[in-house]
């Protein structure tokens, strides 16, 4: 229920429009029914004094200057009911558009909040949790909104029918409606049961997809070592739990439908007896009352089923909203205002950095000369990647400072600084798209000329221009059609396409065979003097090509 209120606040215009349309539809429906009731009374001639709704209907006919004949009442009644159907259709279209908006807005909010979060927060997030939020939870949340809208429609319909019945005989209707409401209230435990199963499903899907994404990422060694059964056993427990939650959900849904029907039949039976025998009402009035009350309670029953569906989806919305809120709380604040320039050097002055309580770098003094190739070497875990992340402003020193051409990095506009950086990771992570899309990553400011220039600089133009479709050639999953060295040179071209001043290469040659490694080192060698390069590498070839080599050991600099 809280979810519906949240959506209503997020989309006030659309929600009010849909609700207003549904209320108008309800009123039109009520008028149509009143006209048909008047017609029924006219036909049977049983009741002398028309009830209030019939009186209202007859007044409308009179105002229209028409005679209240059977044909007029029937025609107007049918027209009103058809008009109601059209208004409901328009309202539902509005609801449909909003459902699509809800899913899209949630997805965009998730992407933005995660992309704008601090690097350290991002590192701590399981990829599976985010893809589950993006795919499953956003869909289920929008379904929840849809079921909430259905519930509102059903309640409005129920109110219209109940209102008509109350206007005919308020005492009888009140007793019948309270009794009907109580019967439905008895079934509310099935709504709660389905909601509980929905919550378990949400939690299980989140952890299942997190584990699965991690395992699929590491599937090659598992397969090579014949240990894929291990993945199976890890996932099967959660899958079995998920099955149990789904079974409970299905049972709760089926039980609600199965129990609502006999309860409605009991209500109709008791109503007949009560109105006819206890209250001595005329048969025609009893028929009308039973019709109106049965319709009202039937709409309430449908509303209860929609509530049940909404409860199943609601937990997905809260989980997704929680992920978005958490990422927003971890948003990276805008840092610095000064325009960066890299003409002389990047200087570390007594820089120290800790991961929580663990000191990773301490007392780092370092100069990275502009236009030079500087290579960072050192044992695993000594702090090389941390040092690079500090240069990129992804992490911030706990002590000391980093100066870019003499200006403290903390004072420099971080977004502009990062746009001056080209970054080549160990694994080039190419997407299953064309060469050009892999280079521009969808940036509308970059075109084929930029791509060609970057490919030439990265020494990749030779093999790309001989591909059947050139830069439009599709690369296949993870760039599977290219050799390791070719993939890495494409990654270098991607890093160069926006003309960076600083190129960071994080173990860019460590996954390559000897030949590819030599080709990539030759490429890096050709770039020397054209921009500043900072490389983490153990590669002897790259160390030999370097203008400066810095050895990091146990978080400190050792002179080479
Ligand atoms: N997100 C993190 N949270 C906590 N500790 C971390 C985190 N990332 C790295 N560390 C720790 O910081 C230290 C330095 O790590 P870093 O990745 O900078 O080393 P590295 O020299 O690049 O290692 P490698 O050559 O193996 O990549 C290591 O002890 C590592 O365990």
From TrEMBL:
PANTHER family: ATP-BINDING CASSETTE SUB-FAMILY B, ATP-BINDING CASSETTE SUB-FAMILY B MEMBER 6
Broad class of the protein's primary localization: membrane
Superkingdom field: Bacteria
Subcellular location: Cell membrane
SMART domains to which the protein is assigned, alphabetical: AAA
TM regions (residue ranges): 69-91, 144-164, 170-191, 250-277
Residue intervals of the ABC transporter domain: 346-559
Lineage: Bacteria, Pseudomonadati, Pseudomonadota, Gammaproteobacteria, Chromatiales
Coiled-coil stretches noted in the UniProt entry, renumbered to this chain: none
One MF term in the entry's GO annotations: ABC-type transporter activity
Keyword Nucleus in annotation: no
Topology versus the membrane: Multi-pass membrane protein
Keywords associated with the record: ATP-binding, Cell membrane, Membrane, Nucleotide-binding, Transmembrane, Transmembrane helix, Transport
Domain ABC transmembrane type-1: from-to ranges: 17-295
Protein's name according to its UniProt entry: ABC transporter ATP-binding protein
């Amino acid at each position: 229920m809280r979810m519906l209120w949240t959506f209503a606040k997020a989309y006030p215009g659309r929600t009010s429009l849909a609700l207003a349309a549904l209320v108008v539809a309800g009123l039109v429906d009520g008028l149509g029914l009143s006209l048909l009731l008047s017609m029924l009374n006219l036909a049977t001639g049983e009741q002398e004094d028309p009830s209030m709704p019939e009186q209202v209907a007859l007044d409308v006919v009179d105002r229209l200057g028409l005679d209240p004949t059977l044909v007029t009442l029937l025609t107007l009644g049918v027209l009103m009911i058809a008009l109601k159907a059209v208004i409901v259709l328009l309202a539902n279209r509005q609801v449909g558009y909003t459902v699509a908006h809800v899913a899209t807005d949630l997805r965009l909010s998730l992407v933005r909040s995660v992309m704008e979060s601090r690097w350290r927060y991002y590192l701590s997030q399981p990829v599976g949790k985010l893809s589950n939020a993006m795919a499953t939870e956003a869909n289920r949340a929008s379904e929840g909104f849809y079921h909430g809208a259905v519930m509102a429609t059903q309640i409005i319909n129920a109110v219209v029918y109940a209102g008509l019945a109350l206007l005919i005989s308020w005492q009888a209707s009140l007793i019948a409606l309270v009794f009907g409401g109580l019967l439905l209230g008895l079934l509310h435990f099935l709504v709660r049961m389905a909601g509980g199963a929905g919550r378990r499903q949400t939690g299980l899907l989140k952890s299942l997809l997190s584990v699965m994404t991690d395992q699929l990422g590491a599937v090659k060694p598992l397969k090579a070592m014949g240990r894929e059964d291990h993945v199976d056993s890890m996932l099967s427990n959660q899958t079995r739990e998920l099955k149990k939650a789904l079974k409970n959900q299905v049972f709760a849904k089926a039980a609600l439908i199965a129990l609502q029907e006999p309860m409605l039949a009991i209500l109709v039976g008791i109503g007949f007896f009560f109105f006819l025998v206890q209250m001595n009402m005329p048969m025609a009035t009893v028929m009308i009352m039973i019709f109106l009350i049965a319709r009202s309670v039937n709409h309430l029953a449908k509303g209860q089923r929609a509530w049940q569906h909404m409860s199943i989806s609601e937990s997905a919305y809260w989980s997704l909203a929680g992920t978005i809120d958490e990422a927003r709380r971890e948003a990276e604040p805008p840092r610095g205002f000064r325009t960066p320039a890299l003409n002389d050097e990047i200087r570390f002055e007594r820089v120290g950095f800790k991961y929580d309580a663990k000191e990773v770098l301490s007392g780092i003094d370092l100069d990275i000369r502009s236009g030079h190739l500087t290579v960072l070497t050192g044992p695993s875990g000594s702090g090389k990647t941390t040092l690079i992340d500090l240069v990129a402003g992804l992490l911030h020193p706990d002590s000391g400072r980093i100066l870019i051409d003499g200006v403290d990095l903390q004072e420099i506009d971080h977004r502009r600084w990062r746009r001056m950086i080209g970054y080549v990771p160990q694994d080039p992570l190419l997407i299953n798209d064309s060469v050009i899309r892999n280079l521009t990553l969808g940036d509308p400011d970059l075109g084929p000329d930029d791509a060609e220039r970057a490919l030439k600089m990265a020494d990749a133009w030779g093999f790309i221009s001989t591909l059947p479709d050139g830069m439009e050639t599709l690369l296949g999953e993870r760039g599977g059609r290219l050799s390791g060295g070719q993939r890495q040179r494409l990654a270098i071209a991607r890093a160069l396409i926006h003309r960076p001043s600083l190129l960071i290469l994080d173990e860019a040659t460590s996954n390559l065979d000897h030949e590819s490694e030599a080709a990539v080192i030759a490429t890096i060698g050709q770039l020397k003097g054209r921009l500043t390069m900072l490389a983490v590498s153990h590669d002897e070839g790259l160390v030999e090509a370097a203008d400066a080599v810095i050895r990091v050991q146990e978080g400190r600099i050792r002179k080479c």
